[in-house]
Structures are given as C-alpha cells and as structure tokens.
Design the sequence.
C-alpha cells in the first residue's frame, strides 16, 4: 500500500471514531419494548391491591361514624366498600361505593353519638343474671361481622345496630326474626351449613 494512503488512513481513523461516538451519544440507549397486555394488567392489579393511607383514613372515619369497614388495613375490600355504600345511602349521597370528594369531606366532619343500649328481653335478662349474656353477645358480634352483617362498633351492650343485624341474619336463614341474643342463634351462626352471608348491596 502506498505510504501516502497509510498516512491518509491514519488521519481519517480518529475522525471516524469521534463521529461514531457522537452518534451513539445522540441516539442514547435502545428504547424498551412496550409492556404486553398481561404485564400491564399485572401492574394495575398490584397497584390496586396495595394498601394506601387514604383508604386507611377512610376506614377509620367510617368506624367513628359507627359503620363496620373491617380492620384499618388500607385495602378497599368488599367489607369497606359495603360500609361506604351504607354510609352514603344513610347520608343521602349517591351510593357509588367510591371515596368521592363530597364523601371524604362529609366523613371528615365526624360521627354521630354512639347508639343507646336497647332494652333487654326477658330471655336476655335471664342470661345476664346467669353471667352468660356477655360471652354470647361478644360471640354473636364477631360471628355476624364475619358473615358480613353490620353490627356497629364493638360493645358489650345490646344495641339497635346489633338487633337489626340479628334480624337480618334470621330472615336470610329462614328463621323467625326475633333480634334476640341467644345460645341457639350463636350456634346457628357458627355451625349452620350452607353458611349464610349478607349479600353485597
């Protein structure tokens, strides 16, 4: 190869390398491939199932109003949505089951006074005298909540909310609605099959 050709190549090579490097810097890294439909759905599902402080605050305020959203875990599950729907209906709002701006503003105003105790029936007074009313009462509240019925805030007293929940369960089970705390009904809640659950509104 002629000497002058060698010299030309030696001069041109650094220039070519510099231009190639500048081109790579301008183009940047190769763009990522778009997500598949499955990957997109997975990301949306994970985000929707993640607990949030907004939902946790909503659950705490619903409980202050005397509704039963379940544990304040920050998850918008069926129990929280059911409590929110009931609260919205009771407040005359559109029952969307969603924490709309009007809903969150009204909830932040605070809750009503706790419900007064309901007078005991004759059977309940006998249970109370035998020191058996309290364990039956606490057991029925827990079971009714587990079955999806709203019993109001946890209490050691028979409240109107609890009586309404008992009657609703009795009607759904085909029993005569009494609204009364009893061992028989507690056993029915625990052992009846198929299990009776409150329908989502």
Sequence:
């Amino acid at each position: 190869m002629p000497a002058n050709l060698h010299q030309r190549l030696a001069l041109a090579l650094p220039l070519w390398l510099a231009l190639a490097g500048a081109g790579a810097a301008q183009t940047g890294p190769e763009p990522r491939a778009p997500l598949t439909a499955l990957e997109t759905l997975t990301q949306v599902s994970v985000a929707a199932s993640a607990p949030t402080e907004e939902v946790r605050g909503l659950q705490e305020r619903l409980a202050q109003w005397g509704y039963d959203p379940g544990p304040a875990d920050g998850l918008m599950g069926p129990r929280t949505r059911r409590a929110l729907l009931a609260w919205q209906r009771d407040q005359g709002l559109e029952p969307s089951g969603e924490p709309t701006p009007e809903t969150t503003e009204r909830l932040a105003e605070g809750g009503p006074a706790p419900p007064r105790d309901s007078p005991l029936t004759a059977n309940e007074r006998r249970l109370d005298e035998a020191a058996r009313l309290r364990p039956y009462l606490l057991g029925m509240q827990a079971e009714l909540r587990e079955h999806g019925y709203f019993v109001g805030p946890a209490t050691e007293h028979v409240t109107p909310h609890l009586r309404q929940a008992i009657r609703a369960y009795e009607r759904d089970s085909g029993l005569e609605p009494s609204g009364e705390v009893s061992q028989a009904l507690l056993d029915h809640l625990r052992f009846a099959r198929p299990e009776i659950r409150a329908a989502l509104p």
In short: The chain has nine helices and no strands. The radius of gyration is 32 Å. The mean pLDDT is 79.
